[in-house]
Amino acid sequence: HAVDTVVGIDRINFTVPNHYLDLTDLAESRGVDPNKYLIGIGQSKMAVPALDQDIVAMAANAAEPMLSDDDKERIGLLVVATESGVDQSKAASLFVGDLLGLPGHHRSIEIKEACYGATAGLQLACDYVARHPQRTALVIASDIARYGLSTPGEVTQGAGAVAMLVTRDPAILAIEPESVYESRSTGDFWRPNYSAQAFARGKYSEEVYVGMFQELWAGAQELGMARPDELQALLFHIPFSKMGRKGLRTLGDGVIGETDYARLTDRFESSIIYGRQVGNVYTGSVYLALLSLLDNDEGLTEGDRIGLFSYGSGSVAELYFGILQPGYRGRLDAAAHRTMLQARERLSVPEYEAMFSAQLPTDGSELVLDRSDQSDSAPHYLAGIKGHERQYR
Ligand code: HMG
After folding, report:
1. Which residue lies with its CA nearest to atom 21 of ligand 1?
2. How far is the CA of 361 from the centre of ligand 1 (A)?
3. Which residue is closest in CA terms to ligand 1's atom 28?
4. Is the pTM of this model over 0.90?
5. Where is the Hydroxymethylglutaryl-coenzyme A synthase C-terminal domain positioned along the sequence (predicted)?
6. Is 376 annotated as a binding residue?
7. For residues 283 and 126, what is the distance between their CA atoms, to the nearest angstrom?
8. In principle, which of 79, 95, 314, 387 could form an S-S bond with 121, CB 3.0–4.6 Å?
């Protein structure tokens, strides 16, 4: 098997729930200056999932539009990365493969390491395709970020899924085999099994994020991997856009040349357009930033090199690189993505609070979800729970 096989992202798509909360409405209701959310946090809207859009349904909805029957035949590995899993034992990917109608001849797993999970999945997928060049791998990041009403994290919630097809000779982004990464046990953010909401040491989590970025950046410099003049864009995990901006700012003040810093800052703005309207999608956040950059930046061209900083609390971080491939623009559907974001329904704060508080039963009781109250435009959805098993359509 060829170690020098070029592998990477051949297709990428995302889905968001079709309800959102405008953060100026949230600010007013919480008695906060809207600029704290719009500028201080750097977010404008937040996706709010209906109960029928759990991570399995969203994952299937993100992947479905980009797969033909032939594509489904070639998939040899399906990874769903999530920290909002629906079962302690069965992988979410098995439900997703079933909804997508994938033939059985593939490996199917769920991966967890906070927001880093999809990068772990993507690297695994690249290794798999390098060893099995005739097969492809489908990696889906799907999450619901919940912190609780009136908590400091409330404004950084969100939900959505990003699907990526990894192949040899990819049409969008070739991923370089060399990267820098680090794992270190920290208590910056976690969600115990008994809790539907995450806990965070907010300011400390920001410190760990920035610290790990700086270490990996320095490591990449030592290895000659990240010459600033060779990077056309640098993408960040975006729990909220200010966080990525703080990471990028560590390269200001002469750390890298002014021209390079200006170019990376300019590209950063294109990378947060979608995330600002969606919120944190945990595992998918850095990939939503990639899609936002590719859909919205007119200046990028084939052959351009992009850095991606992936961070997952707890904590694992990786800085890796990819090269834009010839004709990549033709493989994107920016119009569909913009239409999806614009077509969403705006919730009032009481409607959002009611949706947030409506949770699936935790005592094993059966449930039938009435689609008319839920997310009626999404093709795949959770229809209910019967005999302790989730029922999907
Ligand atoms: P807070 O209490 O709202 O923080 O919590 P704050 O009061 O310091 O305000 C935030 C910013 O708004 C500050 O700017 C203020 O100055 C500014 P900064 O100092 O940060 O640059 N501000 C204003 N700006 C303009 N006009 C105004 C105004 N007022 C204030 N009027 C915090 C913020 C992020 C800590 C909280 O939302 C939180 O705990 N979020 C959840 C944790 C989180 O997202 N951490 C990020 C790093 S960890 C990570 O990325 C991993 C993660 O995705 C999970 C995973 O891996 O699975 C979270």
Report:
1. 40
2. 31
3. 36
4. yes
5. 265-322
6. no
7. 17
8. 79
